[in-house]
Amino acid sequence: AMLRLRLLTWDVKDTLLRLRQPVGESYAAEARAHGVRVQPEALGQSFREAYGAQSRRFPNYGRGRGLSSQQWWVDVVKQTFRLSGVHEDGVLTLMAENLYRDFCSARNWEVLPGAGETLSRCCQRGFRMGVVSNFDNRLENVLSQCNLRHHFEFVLTSEDVGFAKPDRRIFEEALRLGGVPPEQAAHVGDDYARDYRAARAVGMHGFLLRAAGQGKEPGVPPEHILPTLSHLLALIEK
User: Fold this and answer.
1) What percent of the chain has pLDDT over 90?
2) Pairing of strands 17-19, 109-111
3) Which of the residue ranges 29-38, 100-109, 211-220, 229-238 would you say has the lowest mean pLDDT?
4) What is the mean pLDDT of residues 196-216?
5) Beta strand segments in 11-71, E
6) CA 216 to CA 198: how far, in whole Å?
């Protein structure tokens, strides 16, 4: 039977957009511009460490902890370079501010194959559309720069809402904005726990984007798996 869906909500990172290159490569290029040589692999490792520590200490970009998300990110970037052996304060500040700005633009993000076309077709079919993303407040700008913003009635970020997926409250806010009951809504994302399971927990439908070769998740029926975004409409309209 065809699903009676009226609202589709979308994850962004690795669902609609992905980084053009690994974080370590972007950081290494910025360092080179200041005459600082650091290996991209080392920076990638340092970034994961710095990002993890900052996320545990100040969850959701420091929301409610007196930290702006910009300051949160600037601290992550500086700590990434420090862990890789760069300690000069003036250069650290400059690099951090440049990288914060660069990750706000299409310079560092690209649209995943099939994403633009799938979003257009969903809009043409009359679905209401929104974004539900664990992202900071740069997301509106990133989506605009990548020419995707116009597909969506609303963009909910964890920073703005104050709750991060898998917290049910960010999905409940999306349903309130979309004006539909959960059984008439579906969420599309690439993360089993934060996207698929969390949406299902509030009574929404869920579709899990799973590239070939990624392992099977427990308890996800094959008709909820998207090998690519282009498969979505066929599954909805079965």
Assistant:
1) 88
2) antiparallel
3) 211-220
4) 87
5) 17-19
6) 17
CA distance 118 to 226: 12
| Residue carrying the six token digits 């999905």 | 171
Give the pLDDT band (50/70/90) at residue 1.
very low
Two structure tokens written together for 237:
């309209």
CA dist 222 to 101, 217, 235, Å?
40, 10, 10
Q: Please, are residues 77 and 103 in contact by the beta-carbon 8 Å criterion?
A: no
Which of 190, 197, 198 has its CA nearest to residue 167? 198
203 phi-psi bin (left φ>0, alpha ψ -120 to 50, beta other): left
Question: What one-letter code names the amino acid at 168?
Answer: R
Of 214 and 67, more confident: 67
Confidence tier at 217 by pLDDT (50, 70, 90): confident
User: Residue 186: beta bridge partners?
Assistant: 8, 205
| Residue 87 tokens, joined | 């300690």
| Region class of 181: left (phi > 0), else alpha (psi between -120 and 50), else beta | beta
128-133 and 109-111 beta bridge pairing: unpaired
Contact 92, 80 (CB under 8 A): no
Strand order in the sheet with 154-157: 154-157, 128-133, 7-10, 185-189, 205-209, 225-226
How open is the CA angle 5-194-167, to the nearest 5 degrees?
90
Q: What is the DSSP letter of 146?
A: T
> To which residue do tokens 């920073």 refer?
159
DSSP 149: G
